[in-house]
Amino acid sequence: MADSGDIQTQPHIALLPSSGMGHLVPFVRLAATLAAHNCRVTFITTHPTVSLSESRLVSRLLSAFPHAVTPKEFHLLPLDRSTANSKDPFFLQFEAIRRSAHLLSHLLTSSAQSDPPLSALVTDVTLASAVIPITHDLYIPNFILFTSSAKMFSLLAYFPALVGVTLSDEINIPGIPPLLKSWLPPPLLDQTNLFTTQFIENGEALVRSDGILINTFESLEPEMVAALNEGKVINGLPPVIPVGPLVPCECEPERGESSVIEWLDWREKGSVVFVSFGSRTAMSREQIREVGEGLVRSGYGFVWVVKDKKVDREEEEGVDEVVGGELMERILKDGKGVVVKKWVDQEAILSHGAVGGFVSHCGWNSVTEAAWHGVRLLAWPQGGDQRINAEVVERSGLGVWVRSWGWGGIGKVVKAEEIEKKVREMMGNEQLRVQAAQVSDEARKAVGLGGSSHRGLTGLLDKLQNTINSKHAV
Length: 474
Ligand code: UDP
Ligand code: G50
What we know:
Blueprint lengths: L11 E5 L4 H16 L3 E8 L4 H13 L4 E7 L13 H11 L4 H6 L10 E5 L3 H10 L4 E5 L3 H9 L11 E2 L7 E2 L13 H12 L5 E4 L7 H8 L10 E3 L16 H7 L6 E5 L8 H14 L2 E5 L13 H5 L1 H8 L4 E4 L5 H5 L4 E6 L3 H10 L2 E4 L6 H11 L2 E3 L14 H13 L1 H18 L4 H22 L1
Parallel strand pairs: 1-2, 1-4, 2-3, 4-5, 5-8, 8-9, 10-11, 10-13, 11-12, 13-14, 14-15
Antiparallel strand pairs: 6-7
Helix pairs in contact: 1-2, 5-7, 10-12, 10-16, 14-17
The structure holds uridine-5'-diphosphate (UDP) and 3-(4-hydroxyphenyl)-1-(2,4,6-trihydroxyphenyl)propan-1-one (G50).
The site of 3-(4-hydroxyphenyl)-1-(2,4,6-trihydroxyphenyl)propan-1-one has 12 residues, from helix 6 and helix 7.
């Protein structure tokens, strides 16, 4: 293990996250984990960021680790939007970073004199194909951090083989159970969409990377990890190393926000439902009101995060306006629930004993956090990789997925009665509670001393350390 205090032999790892909290959060956690393993970390910070939450989180990481983590500013070139086929601000930012990747050469070679040379760069998967050629030219090993499920990774690896093929309803990826076409991230159904062109290029680049770190753990997705490493999905992949769940860092929460936790302190153990759809999913007003009505009718206490804009900088309306005054009044009466329309400390909420269930879009970070705390899930995927993740949730026993609800935002509105019924079923499902607790035990074993994810990470750091030592010996 990299346990020498000698700065000359410390692995020095640069991290390059991508855009959006869903991609930044796991990089922050990896930075903190590497610092705890006595690595030097260079954290590449892109400017500007899409959301305010991103720039704030980076600042908190840097102040929490003033010695172990050093920032490097990466100023992006402006993107000509007419040359990028997408309206999604986060996908456009992936593209802006990708098209600025050549600027990384200088950035990666201009370390301070006192820094040990870079042992590796860990790149977010959305940037892989643009960044790997740069690190190759500099002879810097390149690892990818995959921030979603191993199941989603299998799709990424296999997807290039499907280009030009008319997809049938069932997609058969070798070595893993079939995926349904209806589970694919919707943009992938359009081969000219920016997300799709990036996805194909990144999928093709995987074999040129030195290793893939995935924020999952073996017992959550055992068949996936085995199939990938046995070469069943595609040939020629580098080692696929589960390193998760990447555990929340103390630097993550913003200070000063504790009203939700104070409210939870008064509730009975396991009696509250937490409802949140992540950092970038806006819900229609009509759907928001059905959710609120359904939660009130369920009879369970709830903490509900509403969001009606994709990017936080654009949030203007207050919570009363979005939820509706009459409904808000009924929610507040008798303290049935708490509704917030801002960033919450999800880690503090999920770790609170009063929370017994989580209605989630199944962004992969939310899934890993629920797994870590053993909170059962009611999966309601809203887009992207979330249906594939919801299937992992269901298969592992961590939660249930109501497939008939469809994608949020597209097509039908799910009615309050339906929501009420499914929330009650989840909260009353004792078997699910026990299974979720077992998943949490497994997650803790995986990252504990000698656990599968712990061994995966320390094995990698040992290799980097040995490379440094052999260079010193020459
Ligand atoms: N998150 C949070 N507070 C919020 C919204 C999100 O702490 O109000 C965190 C959440 O805990 C998770 C991340 O932001 O770590 C969101 O990532 P996820 O993959 O769940 O979904 P995405 O936002 O990418 O759709
Ligand atoms: C974000 C998102 C939708 C989505 C995904 C996101 C993924 C992750 C994998 O991260 O599926 C991935 C995305 C893009 C890419 C390569 C890999 O080029 O909003 O589906």
